Amino acid sequence: MKRELLLLKKVTIEGADSGNRLYDVDLLLRESECFCLVSAVHQKEVLVEYMQGLGKRISGSVRLKGTELTRADRKTLEKHKVFVISRSTPYMNTLNIGENIFLLRRNSLKKVVINERAIRNQTEYYFEKYKIELNPDAASETLSNADKIIIGIIRSVSQGGRLIVLSDTSGAFSQKEMVRLTSLIERLKEEGIGILISDNNPQAFYCVADRLIIFKHRKIAKKIYDPEQFPLATEIILRGTKAGEGSQKEKKTDIPSICIRGLKAGERTVSIEACRGEIVLVSREAAPIDSLWDQCRRPSDCGLEFFIDGKKVSSHTMADLVKNRVGMMSYEISRMGVMENMSKEDNILMPSYRKISGRLGFYRKASSYILRDNFLFEAGEALDDIDLEKNGWKLVFYRWKLFNPRVLIVHNCITAADLWERDWIKKRLIEMAERGTAVILLENEAAFCSGFSDRVWTVDKV
């Protein structure tokens, strides 16, 4: 008989932001079970924040392994063997892999004699047990984000973890690498460890999930037990929303107008080409998405060359690229590039001020006129409706829509978004493509992006 690991009874919880709450949550997670949380508009994340010790319980009962939980700070939760793993899990590049597993555990180093041989032996034991192909003595800077997540899980298991929460981890894995994570989850389930998954790409975990928990209107709306019904989750959440499946404008597919040369994809040097108004999805099977993004944002260091309409443009700095109407945005950039010391209006107008100012500097008059223009904002949305804390990232999309770049490189913005946000981003990218911008998607969420992309770029097509 499976023993209870986590029990929530009529629980109302508050996230890190006091404005985000979940109400009347009833949930029972037992040994060897894996639940996948699905929601839109920052709902499943509230439960994850509570399990991280960042939120608080307003009412109801929370039990861990049969014990009533009175405090929910991180130290108490880890004492009850609850660990949260995400792409921001602590990791030190000055330590090797084995040291990262054992020296970053919650204990008192005053009472610990560091035994390098024991650390190596224990690391090799866990790597062999869970079939992880990493060298315990390897330098940490050689590891990918996916490797660090795997190591974070092993660190939790080595501390006797019984409930592991995975928060938005799929974005660190390519499509081929995803089997590393799902196979590890299967082994953990066999040992009686419970898994709670909160991810904006839930489809990646359908193969290991025993149940889907769907949040809607800040409550549990439905629990799906049959794996064959899992694909209905998105329809349940987004029922009634409509979006075009791609730009309706006819594209010139014969002569590429944008070309990025010198990208390293494994041992090969490749080029990515796109036509004006074309949305191109870069297949993550070709190369790790994060690696391609690092090269694009540091073109001079990586030897990249940008060609627009057959002419090579300066790419020594990001300012050079913007001057030549090459834009980039990423979820990794703080607030996706929103400047906190600037107004909402100036955040949108920033790259375009040269075009709207003129020699006599009628900046405010021109900016006021532009921000009232209906073409910029989604129907029914006003600038005052945008909250810098919750959805300030929308300003960045409006910024590039106004700037109208020749090419816009988008890195994992869709992957990091929830279902409602993805639909909104999709519409904005299609609008930009219809105005002639070539959009290059560096996204780990291939299933959703391929639905509105005009073409999928792979190494084999080079």
What can you tell me about this protein's structure?
It comes from Hungatella effluvii. GO terms for molecular function: ATP binding; ATP hydrolysis activity. InterPro entries: ABC_carbohydrate_import_ATPase (IPR050107), ABC_transporter-like_ATP-bd (IPR003439), P-loop_NTPase (IPR027417). Keywords: ATP-binding, Nucleotide-binding, Sugar transport, Transport. Residues 6-242 form the ABC transporter domain. There is one protein chain. The chain has 462 residues and is α/β, with parallel strands linked by helices. It has 2 domains: 4-240, 3-Layer(aba) Sandwich (Rossmann fold); 258-458, 3-Layer(aba) Sandwich (Rossmann fold), CATH 3.40.50. 31% of the residues lie in helices and 23% in strands. It contains 17 helices and 19 strands. The strands form 4 sheets. Strands 6-7-8-3-9-10 form a 6-stranded mixed sheet, sandwiched between helices. Strand 4 (56-64) and strand 5 form a beta hairpin. Helix 15 packs parallel to helix 16. It is globular. Mean pLDDT is 81; it is low at 240-244.
CATH superfamily of the largest domain: P-loop containing nucleotide triphosphate hydrolases
CATH class of the largest domain: Alpha Beta
Order of adjacent strands in the largest pleated sheet: 6-7-8-3-9-10
Please, what is the average pLDDT? 81
Give the low-pLDDT segments.
240-244
What count of domains describes the coordinates? 2
Report the major sheet.
6 strands, mixed
Strand content: 15-25%
Radius of gyration: 24 Å
Q: Structural class from helices and strands?
A: alpha/beta
Q: Treating each run of at least 4 consecutive H or I residues as one helix, how many helices?
A: 17
Task: Please give the CATH architecture of the largest domain.
Answer: 3-Layer(aba) Sandwich
Based on Cα principal axes, name the global outline. Answer: globular
According to DSSP, the number of beta strands is 19
- Between the first and last Cα atoms, what is the distance in angstroms? 55 Å
